[in-house]
Design brief:
The protein has about 260 residues and is α+β, with helices and mostly antiparallel strands. It folds into two domains: about 120 residues, Homing endonucleases (Endonuclease I-creI, Roll); about 140 residues, Homing endonucleases (Endonuclease I-creI, Roll). The protein contains ten helices and ten strands. The structure holds zinc ion (ZN). The site of zinc ion has 7 residues, from loops.
Length: about 260
Amino acid sequence: MRIRQLVLLSAYLLTDGGISSKTEKEWTIYFRNKDANIIREFQKQLFSCCGKKGYITKRKDGTDFVRLHSRKLAYRLFELSESYRTKACNEFPICKHLKGKLSSCTLFGTIKIDDIEYPKAKIPEPVFRSDKLAKEFLRIYASCDGGISVIPAKNKKGSKFLVRKIFISVKHPILNNQITELLKKIGFSPSQYKDQVRLVKKEDILKFAKDIRFIRGSKISNDSKFLSGFDKNFILKQVVKSYNNPKNLLAFLQDIRASSRLIRD
Ligand SMILES: [Zn+2]
């Protein structure tokens, strides 16, 4: 198993996946997503680590669920991050270690931040030693737990402008700090919020489009009212173009809004 492949696999698991256990001998690596392109890339990554693609099941809500039983792979991954759960232990669904069952917290302990107990999830150290790996890691992380948003707005005088944002949702305080640090290390100036890290400056958005981008074919999720279903990299490209000529993107966004209003009416 090459370390680089494992590190990239960890980016998927820290966002939309995890490692769970029944007994000390039975560990399951799992990942869920609604986006078929992201599922395919995850399975490729899994295959490059262990020669298996895992079992895939479809949930009623349209989510694909991939799982692979492998104690060996689980323990290799724990060397990179001692947990892949990124919610506080007492958040729903409650961490198994609080119910007296086995979880990564049972093995490696937890960490208290502002009196809240968190699993020991972190960004693997090799990510901080290579800018190339950092960019690949962030591409996966931002594709699974992040995205791009662009909203038309009006100023007081009535002229229209665009509010552009690339965001990474990250609630775990350690991961939130590390994602911010990592972006700074490779030349970005991110804005840090309690549960998000954002890129809003022109230079940062242009640099993201040049150096990172999203996983090819990944789509904007249902969280976005108007852009849901659009290719993230397509919208990123339009946002980049809009710095020279905002009119096209403004018209495009207005068209989408008008047609979604027609559908609703
Ligand atoms: Zn826990």
